[in-house]
Amino acid sequence: SLQGIVLVAINPYEQLPIYEQDVIYAYSGQNMGDMDPHIFAVAEEAYKQMASRDEKNQSIIVSGESGAGKTVSAKYAMRFFATVGGSASETNIEAKVLASSPIMEAIGNAKTTRNDNSSRFGKYIQIGFDKRYHIIGANMRTYLLEKSRVVFQAEDERNYHIFYQLCASASLPEFKDLGLSEYLELLM
What we know:
By secondary structure, this protein is α+β, with helices and mostly antiparallel strands.
């Protein structure tokens, strides 16, 4: 049977001191409900369930509207796992997993009326743990790419970033064979 908790978070659009290392340690080892609702409480519960006697796989679903802070919430959850899993200083797995973000964002993000860097696809991040519950790797997959944006954009919105980046680079010798210079004025 599926069971779990729901956390409603609001993007404050600024850095707050509620995601620091000391807050991670404050939530680590705590039972759900002993402290204020927080993404670290959700991450701790998932980590605890994974590391329990049954060793069941866990999922955290981060959902919301454009600009709600889904990517940032996922980063905080990964930071929690890297810290409590003993990997934060050893391999900096969070940085390694998120290193692919600029490439993925160029291909899958666009400017919308709500967000200049809005993700137009879903991300599935699978984090692997060893028998001591230390992070040993991660996979990131994309799904549900908003293909309609390739041929149509609403007023005041833009296509995927990659098209603008390619056109801005059209004059570089390595891009000359792509024939992008004629599209430069159309997209910019």
